[in-house]
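Re: [ENG-882] Designed sequences occasionally contain unexpected residues at chain ends

Forwarding the minimal case from QA. Structure tokens:
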């Protein structure tokens, strides 16, 4: 009843303010149900920035709202929660500079390094990457961006997700190393140098989980996000972004059993039961819940809309003009290629 009232008030305000409500797939069901636009990081940044609405209400984590503001600075972007992806917090512009200094101390020059930052990073990191000639990738276009980076004939520095970096390298038969963990010799001889960041949610899926489901159901398909550990990814039948996972799983007959390694909100919504039989499973005995994605509530959404209506906006995304300019270069380079 309470939710119904909130939903009604939110819908009215969205209409009155002529706003676009955007939600990432990991948001709670009640938020996703209200959204005008739902998608993976690539789709959301592209479609929200190209929308004809001036006000974007973004339910997701901070780097996602920032990406829209970077690509469409003329728009107003407000977020019911300024929740931050924990992986994105593992690097900032100082850590980026320090990493480059370490690589220089190993004997690499800045000109020999080609940085790629996963979109799950703060805007200041994207700006730094652009200044070194690099660009952004998302889980949906990572392979394309990686191929482009290889063609530059430089040493690829992939940040902040060590798993995605290593997964890209492995899939291409290339070697990878971990900055700060591996010896300088190994770092210098590897094709891809990875920053030591990770997603705590996707770390929950292990090779034992895959073995468990394969022994329980002979023909089960294992489907995972590329932020999972490389040893899990190697055992999977399908690897993709959140949108690609949805597309793949929904294309399978309902009787086909699947165990999915990504955030539980998405997995639970994937498809109905096959009659009485459950055929879609979360690939973990524990609950893979992204704490920050799950912060946003209907009440937060109503509060942010009311504050905007009262001309006292809260949680609006503002960016430094110089950082925005450079971050846009990194994102535009990616969009041109994808
Ligand atoms: P997608 O771009 O695949 O939606 O992934 C975003 C994310 O944060 C996954 O953890
Ligand atoms: Fe970040 Fe992981 Fe949450 Fe995705 S699931 S937003 S990578 S913490």
């Amino acid at each position: 009843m309470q939710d119904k009232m909130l939903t009604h008030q939110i819908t009215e305000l969205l209409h009155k303010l002529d706003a676009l409500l955007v939600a990432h797939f990991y948001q709670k069901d009640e938020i996703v149900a209200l959204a005008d636009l739902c998608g993976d990081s690539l789709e959301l940044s592209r479609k929200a920035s190209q929308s004809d609405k001036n006000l974007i209400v973004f339910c997701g984590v901070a780097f996602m709202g920032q990406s829209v503001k970077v690509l469409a600075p003329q728009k107003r972007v407000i977020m019911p929660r300024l929740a931050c992806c924990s992986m994105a917090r593992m690097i900032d512009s100082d850590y980026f500079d320090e990493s480059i200094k370490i690589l220089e101390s190993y004997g690499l020059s800045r000109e020999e390094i080609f940085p790629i930052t996963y979109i799950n990073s703060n805007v200041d990191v994207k700006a730094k990457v652009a200044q070194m000639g690099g660009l952004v990738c998302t889980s949906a276009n990572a392979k394309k961006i990686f191929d482009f980076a290889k063609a530059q004939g430089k040493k690829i520095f992939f940040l902040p997700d060590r798993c995605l970096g290593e997964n890209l390298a492995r899939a291409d038969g290339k070697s990878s190393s971990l900055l700060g963990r591996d010896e300088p010799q190994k770092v210098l001889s590897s094709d891809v140098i990875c920053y030591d960041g990770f997603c705590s949610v996707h770390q929950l899926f292990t090779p034992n989980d895959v073995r468990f489901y394969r022994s329980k159901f002979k023909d089960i398909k294992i489907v995972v996000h590329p932020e999972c550990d490389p040893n899990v990814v190697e055992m999977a039948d399908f690897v993709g972004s959140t949108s690609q996972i949805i597309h793949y799983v929904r294309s399978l007959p309902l009787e086909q059993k699947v165990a999915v390694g990504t955030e539980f909100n998405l997995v639970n919504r994937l498809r109905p039961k096959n009659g009485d039989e459950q055929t879609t499973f979360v690939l973990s005995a524990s609950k893979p819940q992204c704490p920050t994605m799950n912060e946003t509530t209907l009440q937060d959404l109503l509060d942010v809309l009311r504050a905007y209506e009262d001309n006292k906006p809260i949680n609006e995304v503002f960016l430094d003009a110089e950082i925005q300019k450079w971050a846009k270069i990194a994102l535009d380079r990616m969009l041109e290629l994808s």
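QA comment: On inspection the terminal residues look reasonable. The mean pLDDT is 97. Proposing we downgrade this to a documentation issue.
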